Fold these 4 entries.
Entry 1:
Amino acid sequence: MNSDFGGRLRSLREEKNLTQTELSKRSGIHNVNLSRYERGLQQPTADALRKLAEALEVSIGYLMEGGPQEIPPSRLEDPELRSQLEEIERLPDTEKTVVKQFLDAFIFRHRVRGLQQTTRSA
């Protein structure tokens, strides 16, 4: 993991105007652990990374490696999908949450079906 993780975590938290206690409540990660992450004394688990990324509304990759200037432009080749995602980005947070939950459910269903087909083939 990038050695700048702790600093990036702290910067993102501060950009969102969150205290460690507030981020702890949002992420479900104890504020003592958040302090240790920010000071570089402890590395988060994969599950903790996921929770932090969700709470800070960034990708895990961005949380681990990216700075604001380092976010690559969209690589989506489908212009209609890119346009839809840009529109979703402008929705209020509550509506974005609903869209994300729907997408998560759809992707999960797709993966389950793929696993079912794989086990039937074996």
Entry 2:
Amino acid sequence: MKISIGSTSLSTVAKRERRLTNERGSKGKARRIASRFIFAGFLAAAIAPTLGVAQQLPSNEKIIASGLLAPRGLRFGPDGDLYVAEAGTGGSKSTGKACTQVPGPVGPYTGGPNARISKISPSGKRTTVASGFPSTQDAMGDLIGVADVVFMDDVLYAVVSGGGCSHGNPNSPSGIAKVNRTTGQWELIADIGAFLKTHPTEFESADDFEPDGTLYSVITVDGKLYTVEPNHGEVLSVTKGGTIKQVIDISASEGHIVPTSIAERNGKFYVGNLNLFPIDPQWARILTIENGGYEDHDVPGFDTEGYHIVNSKAGFTTVVAVDFGPDGLLYALELSDMAGNPAPGEGKVVRVNRAGVVEDVVTGLVVPTAMTFGPDKALYVSNFGAAPAGMGQILRIDVALSY
């Protein structure tokens, strides 16, 4: 996945680009590497020395599931079980010259049908709900598969991110799938990979481009699904019948900022972003997006129609999930808070307190990828989510809520 967000000044961007050029040797190469999200190969080497040591957790944290295949988005179902999207293990199928490939050093990808959705019972038992989803692995070891899950009218839907020819899965597109929880059968109701090819966003990065997208998160609002596509930089809506529409082209105003996550409150969307690598702490932000358009009567070319960005709050780092807690505050999950590349133990959960200050809630996480609040008001986190397959955990965390 590629990620970045911003509304920084031109001079700041220019300085940063010059720094990346000096550090990496070439501007283009720096951007491609910087915008990668997972770094699974790098993390395998970094995390491996700790595997033989018992994991020490604070008293308010508990591992409720382990051994998962790169866990991503998670939601509680109507049956009380916790449903978890898993990216899988990639595969060996390469499509070569059959279609446009992702540029190196990230591409090419190789794919296979081994992403899945699991559910975790209250006792911690893992059961496969549905399998055979497209999974893919890039040249750097990053895994993409099922990216998120959500329920609408008690029906399970999944974000299928590992599909598409450029991901080594030419017969299994990326998009939104409807899943039968009883039989495990699933069907793609919205081919978002095809939509992206015919509906380009305003500013796509040629050296950091995913033809089939890297869909990451989804929510439901008023009978529709809303999903975030980080690489092209947009939010899309999908109806139950599979109709796809662009809600907002974030790239048109923010450039290649790589939005990742979305929450909704009273008709407003709150979208977080990862930002470019190497990590600059506190450069990521959360955008507030409203409907209704904007008219600029003084300067031509600045009008917008429909949904548009009305506010932006910085002070975050590598945001991969946003959610509202039981206390009504906005919480954000950060992949890694340390400058440089993602590092084990640097992931954390922050929230915006009632004074408007971004404060730490949970620290010490290892490349987490998603979170959700449970019916018990505890926080559930996909830990080791961006690590190699088989290392994934789900943590249950008792959070001191702020009413």
Entry 3:
Amino acid sequence: MIVYAESSGQQSTNSGSWTPIPGLAMTLPRGVGDSALLILNIPNPYAQGNNLPGGNFGLQVNGVVLNAFACFTYNEESPPAPAACRRRCRS
């Protein structure tokens, strides 16, 4: 059985703690067993700031954030704005 959820539109947060992504909550049906494979696909995330900005992504099960999480940071202290990055990355 495949259960699927997706979010659309621009997402943004300045929170220093875990913040749910709207539309990405799901309830697994009873009887699926003790295991589930969850895949979080975040295409082209972007963070703003002036101190090596980045982001963390985690999964929450039954109200508890799992120990495993994904993160990204920039190798530039102050990365360019998204439009400038797209122009630079294409050339």
Entry 4:
Amino acid sequence: MKGVVMDKSGKSYIVLTEKGDYIRKKLNKNYELGEEINVVSTSFDYKSFSAAAAVLILVGILAFNMLLIPYGYAEVAINPSVELGYNRLYNVVKYKGLNEDGVELLKSIKKLKGMQVEEAIDYLVKEADEKGYMNQTEENYVVVAYTSKNGEIDKELEIKVNEKIKNVGTEVALMNMEKNHYEEIREKKENPAIEGLKEKLIERNISKEDLKEIDEVRELARMLKNTEKEKKGKPENPGNSENAGPPEGVNPPGQENDKGSSENGKNNTSEQDNNKGKEDEDNQDNEQNPGNQDHGSGNSGGNSSHGGN
């Protein structure tokens, strides 16, 4: 293969081959610049190298984006609020406290990064409990507000989280939020979990004024739970059942006795009517046959006279 000497340094030459490749060769002979020479095809393929380098760079960027850049966010709101950034493999790649208690809680935690997001949530809840953030006398609520594409439920994530935290001893609610909306709330320095709960309560006809002064996750989660119960048709005051009527076909307590007494009263009334009717008939017969009364009197008189004899 032929080539043209483009540069030289001692016995080292750079040659442009007829294929358009630049190669560096060590030659024993002395050649002048621009001289055409024969070279063995052991050239370094700069074009191939450039293409391979571009592919490696692209793979590196994709790997960086997949493994180190957050794909989604999950806020774990107890009272301490901690934000977890996780990649496409659901590994935590960054975390941050969203309020003072959240910052304080993270001071003693050093192993969140690299954990699976469901393990990190479980770990945070247990740490919060150990440090006294859980109320020992009232029902506790943990809200996990996570981002998803177009606000759709991430079934894989929810299954992972529910399976992991089912034995934590407190009620955990998962709430999916559209990623752009979540980021807008964060840009305003507001809490996504609190704002998300308020939005859901407003959808259930709770006024903004009633929610204005409430900034506690536990209270908002309790209110949302109550509205869910009402939505499913449960009574608002289940203890106030005294005004509720009995099921169809069932008499209230004590009504069976009243019914029996009523039937006995009807029977007694019927017998009295029959007796009264017979008395009326007898009176009518006596009026029509007065001799029956005289005959009875005469017999009585005769008997008396006989008794005198």
